[in-house]
Each structure stands twice: as C-alpha cells, then as structure tokens.
C-alpha cells in the first residue's frame, strides 16, 4: 500500500468520524430534526404493560424530544389506567395528548397527565366517573330450574353473584368503594390541571356526563382544539425542535381474525376472550 493510498484512507476515515459526530450532534441528540414519539392508546384499556414499555423506550431515547399520546378509547379498568397516567407524569419530556373520536372516562384520565390536551370539536370526552356492573341471571335460572349453592368464608365473599340480588349491606359497601375510586379520579385531574380548574370545578364536572371537544374546551378540560398533526407541531414547539420533526410511531395492525370479529387495540384479541371477573372501570357506558 502506497503512502498516497494510506493518506486517502486516513482522510476518508476522518471525514466519516466528523460526519457521524455532526449527525449525532444536530440530529440524534440535538434540537434540529428531533423526534416526536406518538403513543397510541386505542380501544378499551385492560392492560398497561405494552404502553408503559413504549413510554419507557421513548423516555430513554435521547433523540425523542417529546411524546404525543394519541387516545381513541372509552376508558377501561382502573388500575391499568392509573399505571399509564403515573408513568406519563414521571416523564421529564413534554407530553401532549391528542384526543381522537372518543377519549372518555379512563381515556380522559390518561390525557389529563399531559402538559396540554388537544381535542377535535366533535371529540367525545369527559364521562368522569366510575362504573361497576353485574349480570343478573336469577330470573333465567329460576325459569329453567337451575339452583346454585354457595359456601363462603365471609358475608361479602360472593357479592355480585348473578343468581341473587345484592343485599342493602353489599350495595352500601360497593358504593363506598366506588366513591373512593371516583375521588381518586377527581384528585388526579385536579393534580395536573390545578392551574386551570379548582377541585370544586372538577368535582362539578365529574358526574359522568359527556362533553364534545368544544364543550370540554369551554369547561377547561382540554386546552386547544386541533387534530393529531396540530398536537405534534405543538409538542415540537414545546421541545424546542427547529424545523419539521421526525415522527416515531408503532401502530397496531389487526390480525385477520380481529378484522372479522370487528375489534381492535393493543390487546384486542386476548381481551375479547378474557373472562375475568367484575372490575371497577373508568369507562364510558350507554348501558341501561
């Protein structure tokens, strides 16, 4: 190898090193061309693991400067909703919520963890409340002659049994628990929006009613009207990104069976067949 060739190789290597450093400085870890991560929360929320895994992945990625939480959900089980809310609150990056067609009950609970909330004028949101429902089959069982015998360790162990009515004591116990979980919902909203709403104002809106995006803006439950691109642009502004941000997004692709059944979401198929018992739910419901 000639001296001239060696010099050319060294120059090329130096140029490559400089290029890598420039890319890492101005693109990877800098503000120019920084990334905005979009986290989708779609459908009924029954688990939090995969969403939290994504949140942590973007938290630890230096090129991700802000997170937009895209919510299209009627809500879901209390504990997973609270877990996602808690992880969003821990982030030291800007978080913007973008509400899709529906972001009600637990969907709004999660959105309230964001620095700012965007909604479309016709977004269905609110429904701040807690619901617990039981299927009552006593009349059907009596009609077909089915009788269930129960041996239990305590008075309340079979509360919610489908073969009998709730006792007054059971109703009182369940109502007290629901009231406590409802209070947690109100506290969470107030904690993140106390610069916009008093606790009494939140409590007055937390009677389970739904709001359009326009109404939610009027009541200060959301901050701006706009779609997902608007939310992304605002997140980039909060993060100090110059120029057009790059978007990082993992979208759920429904399987053929999910398309046939007509369900979607991160855990859609497994949740469809999940036969677990009664749960408290921060969920919009039109059931009678």
General description of the model:
The chain has 288 residues and is of the alpha/beta class. The chain has a domain at 35-134 and 208-283: 2-enoyl-CoA Hydratase, Chain A, domain 1, CATH 3.90.226.10. 43% of the residues lie in helices and 17% in strands. The protein has helices at 3-28, 49-59, 78-90, 106-111, 138-144, 168-193, 199-205, 213-218, 228-239, 256-261, 268-272, and strands at 35-42, 64-73, 75-77, 95-104, 116-119, 124-126, 210-212, 224-225, 246-249, 281-283. Strands 1, 2, 4, 5, 6, 7, 8 and 9 form an 8-stranded mixed β-sheet that branches. Strand 4 (95-104), helix 4 and strand 5 form a beta-alpha-beta unit. Helix 2 runs parallel beside helix 3 (78-90). The longest helix has 26 residues, at 3-28. The protein is elongated and about 100 Å long. 33% of the residues are buried. Mean pLDDT is 84; it is low at 25-31 and 265-278.
- Could you say what the CATH topology of the domain at 35-134 and 208-283 is called? 2-enoyl-CoA Hydratase, Chain A, domain 1
Identify the CATH architecture of the domain at 35-134 and 208-283.
Answer: Alpha-Beta Complex
Low-pLDDT residue spans: 25-31, 265-278
Q: Can you identify the CATH superfamily of the domain at 35-134 and 208-283?
A: 2-enoyl-CoA Hydratase, Chain A, domain 1
From the spread of the alpha carbons, the general shape counts as elongated
Helical element count?
Answer: 11
Proportion of residues in extended strands: 15-25%
The level of helicity is: 40-55%
Topology, number of strands:
10
Distance between the termini: 85 Å
Sheet with most strands: 8 strands, mixed
Average pLDDT over all residues: 84
Radius of gyration: 25 Å
Which structural class matches the secondary elements?
alpha/beta
CATH C-level of the domain at 35-134 and 208-283: Alpha Beta
Give helix and strand order, one letter per element, not per position. HEHEEHEHEEHHHEHEHEHHE
